[in-house]
Specification:
Layout lengths: L27 E5 L2 E6 L11 E5 L9 H9 L6 H7 L3 E7 L6 H18 L6 E6 L1 H15 L8 E7 L10 H14 L5 H12 L2 H6 L15 H12 L8 E6 L15 E7 L5 E4 L6 E6 L7 E5 L10 E3 L12 H10 L2 E3 L8 E4 H4 L8 H4 L12 E4 L11 H13 L2
Parallel strand pairs: 3-4, 3-5, 5-6, 6-7, 7-15
Antiparallel strand pairs: 1-2, 2-4, 8-9, 8-13, 9-10, 10-11, 12-14
Helix pairs in contact: 3-4, 5-6
Amino acid sequence: MSAPVVDVWGPVSPGARSSYPPAPEPHDEWNLIGGTAWVYYSPLNRRQLIRPVILSDGFSGGSTDLDQLWHGLEENGDYRFISELHATGRDVIILGFADRTASITDNADTVIDCVRRAISERVGRAKLAVGGFSMGGLVTRYALAKMEQDPALPDHETGLYFSYDTPHQGAWFPIALQAFTHYATDKWGDAPAIGPVLRQFSGLLNSPAAKQMARWHIEKAVDTPEPAPERVEFLVKLDELGGWPRNLRKIGVANGVDTGTGNGVKPDVIAVRCDGETLLDTWLKTQAQGEQVIARLQKAGEEPTLVRTNGLPDIDGAPGGLFTMPSPAGDPGSFGLAGLLMSLLGNTVDPDFIATSCFIPSISAVAAADIDDPKALHRPISPEHSALDAFVCAGRNEGHTTMTEELGAWIVNEIVAAD
């Protein structure tokens, strides 16, 4: 399977790929407020910035790794996105962040700084194309809307905004997975070997960006799932800016299908279970509608903790971009991540487990409906329901931010047509 552009768990995941072949040396590098931009001029433009396309990184741990991002965009085995943009005379600006878990509004300032720099460096008057992958689509959406509404900021001079499997209506971090991660961190967060790993994962799920993206969030295992205060505040700020940039064309793609066909994960079944040295009969279930015990967590020598949900949709099996698919590089998926952590805690994981599940529902990626509506999750998507001017969904439910010719070529064609 093609490598994703944005790996959600990133370097935090045990066994994840530690390095990638080095990206080509950029023609220019811009030090920005809260990030870095790497500029690759089209061979057709003789090292001048003439038709800038800004590609924003998304959510993961730590700072942007240019080598990893380049690999997902260009060396993914399916579609050379940067080369195809270069062939049309577009200059590519890869935008990275010093902290990919920081607030979306904070990283939007980095986008604004990058847009300013692109305009100042540009030769001619060609409009910019600006967008991003995963959370990068939200960061750029917010930044462009802010530039339109804030009189202290310059015109963004952007003709096209694009998003790639972006959680416009929210992302889904399984509550069972959140609960297990926080529970394990509470019990073993100070352990010499596994403790730092657990703290990193719990911190990732409790980071400002994760809280703003997640439709439902829990700070601790026993909390009631609901939008985090950080998400509520972000949505209010976004609404005050009009929700979207207006003075441009808005497009997007989803790594899930638009037919309503799910990924095959059934609701209310045990996704992963373990028993052993530190955990007794501990299991996580896939999400179902109605009242449900979603997880049983039990440290050896203690009473079990039962995690309950009520009123959530059967979203693990919904059409959409999947958590990073299991691969030889060590990417574990969603419930596969819990299984990996269970093993590292000295337990035996049942071999028949569900590794991955929906992360960005298709209706979220194309801004078509609220993901808390179970009917909307599993029905065909109509163009008139989307807040985007145009969108395309994948022909199958595939890994989140997987770069494919199907989606990548459509965006390239839209960028060219916007001139």
